[in-house]
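Researcher: Please translate sequence to structure tokens.
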Amino acid sequence: MKLRRIISLEYLLAFLISLFFYWQFDFSLFYFFLFLLLPDLSMLGYTVNTKVGALFYNLGHSLILPTILMMIGFGMMSTLPLMASIIWLAHIFLDRALGYGLKYDEGFKKTHLQQIA
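Model: Translation complete:
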């Protein structure tokens, strides 16, 4: 099995685990699917140039911010940050399963995973 296929399967599994935990917390599946693509608004940075686009895209698609948000949700015992963080992480996992990684300044198709065909 090719390494690229293994990476995709790992991220697909992470997406499914995110969906499972979201469901276990009894959050609304309607909101899950409504907001699943919300992080893609970070692509609007590409309307400025590729450097700004990559910066905004990477902020919206890095695991750091949703992980911090999840810790805040657990620390404050607040469901809204927890729900948002799981949706955000699920989005990132789904993107990576499809081959969309963090972007380099050279352009949208140049990612940390590989160039998108």
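Researcher: Any highlights?
Model: DSSP finds five helices and two strands in the chain.
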